[in-house]
Automatic annotation (TrEMBL):
InterPro entries (alphabetical): NAD(P)-bd_dom_sf (IPR036291), SDR_fam (IPR002347)
TM ranges: 15-37, 309-330
Signal peptide stretch: none
Encoding gene (name): rdh1
Family indicated by similarity: Belongs to the short-chain dehydrogenases/reductases (SDR) family.
Keywords, ordered alphabetically: Membrane, Oxidoreductase, Transmembrane, Transmembrane helix
Any one GO molecular-function label of the UniProt entry: oxidoreductase activity
Name of the protein in its database record: Retinol dehydrogenase 1
GO biological process, one term: steroid metabolic process
SUPFAM superfamilies named in the record: NAD(P)-binding Rossmann-fold domains
């Protein structure tokens, strides 16, 4: 009896001494369960909802268009090329509609708005997915000219802004969704050129748009993919453009990097891309789909385990840590100080 009383007293002491910790654990568990349940709620009436996706010739946009088409959405897929539009139309149901759109051309966007307006009528546009993008020219900043930056910014940032502004009236009608594709390079500038700048800009534009348009019932979500195998990360295209940039450099600039620098840079880039790029782009399109179908869409989606577990955590660390990692991955110029 004495032993039983002592054990009970000991257990009571342990429980009371850890009561605060136990309460915190229980509250955290309940919060996680509540978040999971809330995150799983879906909107209804997919067949009555129109979604416009840019950049559907290949990659994320192409797969998302097919994915939403299978779900019953009224998908309007914007492609840059006639071949891209024809191939996608052949792979989808008759419900999916394709059209040509150049996001760098305001007149092309206005024409698309007129076409989409006739299609959606008074229902408005439920979803706009700003997916169109390009990566090149990309590489050391000193190798760039102003037009190299603007080529990328015109598509990845100015194009996103122009498309969004012109389609906002239709989105307000439907109290719809805007899904903007940024990147982990919108958190960490790991290379030169316009790509990182454009994705930082997409992050900022999306945040301000979300805060402005929430009063009208419009949700804005940002997709932050890690590295995936798409045309944006095709090493052969990036290498070809790097050779173009190198070939036009003044000789004194080439000498400062060294004769072997370009080859070493391309080898390091090919190795890192091969190591990092995931072939499973559905990890990204599932995030996009959730942003369009969830009753409570998230503000940001980190797509890919490299984004979740490495790049985004790295973005919160002191800058010298990211600097060190880049210096380990890429070669140093000959005149390294």
């Amino acid at each position: 009896m004495v032993f039983t009383d002592s054990l009970a007293a000991y257990l009571a002491e342990v429980i009371l001494s850890h009561l605060a910790l136990t309460c915190v654990f229980l509250l955290a568990t309940l919060a996680a369960v509540r978040w999971y349940i809330r995150d799983s709620y879906k909107v209804d009436g997919f067949s009555q909802k129109h979604v416009l996706i840019t950049g559907c010739d290949s990659g994320f946009g192409n797969l998302l268009a097919k994915q939403l088409d299978r779900k019953g959405f009224q998908v309007m897929a914007a492609c840059l090329t006639e071949k891209g539009a024809a191939d996608l139309a052949a792979a989808a149901s008759p419900r999916l509609k394709t059209f040509l759109l150049d996001v760098t051309d305001s007149a092309s966007i206005r024409k698309a708005v007129e076409s989409v307006s006739r299609e959606v009528g008074e229902r408005g546009l439920w979803g706009l997915v700003n997916n169109a993008g390009r990566s090149t020219p990309i590489g050391p900043t000193e190798w760039m000219k102003l037009e190299d930056f603007t080529k990328v910014l015109d598509v990845n940032l100015i194009g996103v802004i122009d498309v969004t502004l012109q389609f906002l009236p239709l989105l307000k009608k439907a109290r719809g969704r805007v899904v903007n594709v940024a990147s982990i390079l919108g958190r960490l500038s790991l290379t030169g050129g316009g790509y990182c700048l454009s994705k930082w800009g997409v992050e900022a534009f999306s945040d301000s748009l979300r805060r402005n348009m929430q009063h009208f019932g419009i949700n804005v979500s940002i997709i932050e993919p890690g590295f995936f195998k798409t045309n944006v990360t095709r090493v052969d295209l990036i290498d070809a453009d790097l050779r173009r940039l190198w070939s036009r450099l003044p000789q004194d600039v080439k000498d400062s990097y060294g004769a072997t620098y370009l080859d070493e840079y391309m080898k390091a880039q090919a190795f890192s891309m091969g190591l990092l790029c995931s072939p499973d782009i559905s990890k990204v399109t599932r995030c996009m789909e959730h942003a369009l179908t969830a009753r409570f869409p998230r503000r940001r989606y980190a797509a890919g385990w490299d984004a979740k577990l490495f790049w985004i955590p790295l973005s919160y660390l002191p800058s010298f840590v990211a600097d060190f990692i880049v210096n380990v991955i890429l070669p140093s110029p000959k005149q390294n100080m």
